[in-house]
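Extended Data, record histidine kinase
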Amino acid sequence: MSGTEAPRPDYPWLLPALLANGEEDRVRRSARDWVIDVLCFLLASGFGACMVYVTGHGVHPAPHPPRMPDVILGAASCLLIWWRRRWPVPIALALAVFGVLSVTSVGAAAILVFTVAVHRRFRTVALVAAAHIASGGVYAVLYPDPRESYWVGLLWTVIVIGAVVAWGMFVRARRQLVLSLRDRAVRAESEQQLRVEQARHQERARIAREMHDVLAHRISLLSVHAGALEFRPDAPSEEIAQAAGVIRASAHQALQDLREVIGVLRDDASDGAPERPQPSLTDLPALIDESRRAGMAVRWENRIRDVTKVPANIGRSAYRTVQEGLTNARKHAPGAAVQVMVDGAAGTGLTVEVRNPMVKAAPEIPGAGAGLIGLTERATLAGGRLEHGRTRQGDFRVHAWLPWPAP
């Protein structure tokens, strides 16, 4: 006996205003609505026909309204069911008036009370229910049943109207629950899509940092060796061949690293674990030797007893810090001695420091400071911190502290 439309705001209290709002409250019927409306019409008509038979052929006939007005009002009540979706409250109040003079309209009246209980707020439902209870009381006064007292008949009216209202409000509550669950599902899906998008952006940022850390080191080596060949064209052939070999090896390694990083972009990783290339703290000696072969003076001091016990993510961040420090020193302070120190222990944290003197006249190698920004973000995400800048002694210092939890 209910439709599929969502609950709508209450009508104003005045009947003319209720009727004036009918056009705005029009709802297009679906196939399910048509089936329900046909069933409601048949139920109301069948109940009305039963009441006509009972009032005319009862064993103990009781007073009842005149037959012709009763049937006319009952038929009109059944027809008004077709407009119950558009004007439920006005029609329900009209049927309360019909109920004073028509017993055949009781079925249609119950359907309208149920409709109001489903689609309107409790205040409006209470008003309509009170109107129908009052109509039943007036009917009992006009046509008293000699077999029962007035109050018993009124009590039965209250019980029937209360049951219809309770059923309708239960249906309304269930619909609101379904709508709420549907809204939560839609909102949860939107939030999930947002989280996926955020994860995608974070993954792209991580891959961009990896690409910068890997390629900046290789390309700076290429720049140093290419600059040496440019400024010393008269160098011995062995040195030229050695520099060319280093350039070729660095270019090959840069292409290999770039291929691996781009492979990460193409792969759809199911977890958030970083992909290759992912060095650790045990790879620092190879990085230092590579920088020394490029002509850098690097002083390497390792104060950690066993670097293999350093967690992978912490060791990776430490490696990237040293790599970026060496790259910056090679770009902005060529020929300067670089000091690299790694210290720490489980429970106290891991300290990484790269220091080099400032050089006034340095070649113009492109740099926008993105590497230091990426290192700062990497250290912050790991729960640590990173500081960089000029010291009082005139050196440029990159200092990072990373958490190293106790086992």
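Summary. The first strand starts at residue 297 and ends at 302.
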